[in-house]
Amino acid sequence: MSSNKKPDNSIPSAGKLQHELKKKKPFESLAQEAWLNLVRTHSQLQIRGERMLAEFGLTGCQYNILRILRGEGHPLPILEVASRTISPVPGITGLIDRLEKAGWVCRERSTTDRRVIYVGITDPALELLSKIDQPLNDLHEEIMQPLSQGDRRELIRLLEQLRCHASEHPE
Amino acid sequence: MSSNKKPDNSIPSAGKLQHELKKKKPFESLAQEAWLNLVRTHSQLQIRGERMLAEFGLTGCQYNILRILRGEGHPLPILEVASRTISPVPGITGLIDRLEKAGWVCRERSTTDRRVIYVGITDPALELLSKIDQPLNDLHEEIMQPLSQGDRRELIRLLEQLRCHASEHPE
DNA sequence: TGTAATTAGTTTATACGTCATCTATTTTGG
DNA sequence: CCAAAATAGATGACGTATAAACTAATTACA
């Protein structure tokens, strides 16, 4: 790729984020500004999600696991659960530990391959999830409210492009 | 291990993400899909940033603090640093501790208000940062490469709208 | 058959986000 | 001038991300 691109093509906006961060200098590139906006926006929204779930005694991570188990409808091997979350293998053990101690999942060793441990969701957890569904949907709507339906599609498209590219060039 | 999947009757509305997550049902709303895309994309990109910084012995959080201190050009009160990062007050202490132990910042108690502790960046840290600048910019460019300049602006605009709304309705 | 390689999962260690609580130092108000 | 409120920061506890090293069960292969 040529770095001879008209640099002025990419003059970053004198954005709101620059002011939020009390940055003295404008961003060096649109790429950097977009990156920082993504990070910043994510963390703001993440906090709201976590707070909502905390009212039900769950962390975002725990909620994700329960959602996966509910969606699947039957117990899954622990590593299969891990592969569907962000958390890598080692972290999953403690996560399942805490969920089990709270009575929301149960472990069950496979009879055919004794290395495998299945995790299943319990009825109380299903009940808990059903109570969370509506408030969480409401939160998502509330958060996305400033965006039109078209804007939401556009956002999804842009993010998908980034993710798609990233998974093709993991380095 | 059984892969007895019956073909799902529901017609997936759009998403690659749905497939990524092995979700059986499509998303319930654009808001939810956009939210999940944001979370997922962020975590993928975040990992790449962290890995790059790890090669220089820094975490993302530590790097942020050093960037702030370099940008400011003079020592800042600890709480001022905290206010410019995502991390709230309590977490900042340990962060500064570790940075200090590594020799990248130094603490200095204010003479006028003895409650205040200033944090300043050291010369070795400045040197370290200067070595990181280029690779990090390259990474940002690489990550944003699939987006045109116009798309980048659009992404920034959408994210700013979300953040702006969120900060007005912190709930 | 017996040993090496794989695979599933745990343990340990470091770093960070978040909350509640604590100390030390101003500042304020009667 | 002194007690109460406010402020700066530290501490401790819990949950999570991440990597490295480990155990135990299974499979591959010579």
Report on this structure.
Two copies of one chain form a homodimer. Chain A has a three-stranded antiparallel β-sheet. With 171 residues, the first copy, chain A, is mainly alpha-helical. The relative contact order of chain A is 0.08. Chain A folds into two domains: 39 residues, no CATH class; 87 residues, Arc Repressor Mutant, subunit A (Orthogonal Bundle). At the A-B interface, helix 2, helix 6 and helix 7 of A face helix 2, helix 6 and helix 7 of B. The structure holds a DNA duplex (30 and 30 nucleotides).
The fold-level CATH name of the largest domain in chain A is Arc Repressor Mutant, subunit A
Please name the two chains that share the biggest interface, counting residues whose Cβ lies under 8 Å from a Cβ on the partner chain.
A-B, 67 and 62 residues
Radius of gyration of CA atoms of chain A, rounded to a whole number: 21 Å
Task: List low-confidence stretches of chain A.
Answer: 1-13
What is the ordering of alpha helices and beta strands of chain A? HHHEHHEEHH
User: In percent, how much strand structure appears in the residues of chain A?
Assistant: 5-15%
Q: Roughly how much helix do the residues of chain A carry, as a percent range?
A: 55-70%
Main sheet summary of chain A: 3 strands, antiparallel
Q: Which architecture of the largest domain in chain A does the CATH hierarchy give at level 2?
A: Orthogonal Bundle
> Could you tell me the number of beta strands of chain A?
3
**How many structural domains does the protein architecture of chain A include?**
2
Shape of chain A: globular
Mean pLDDT of chain A: 85
CATH class of the largest domain in chain A, named Mainly Alpha
The CATH superfamily of the largest domain in chain A is known as Winged helix-like DNA-binding domain superfamily/Winged helix DNA-binding domain
Distance between the termini of chain A: 17 Å
* Oligomeric state of this protein: homodimer
Sequence of strands across the biggest β-sheet of chain A: 1-3-2
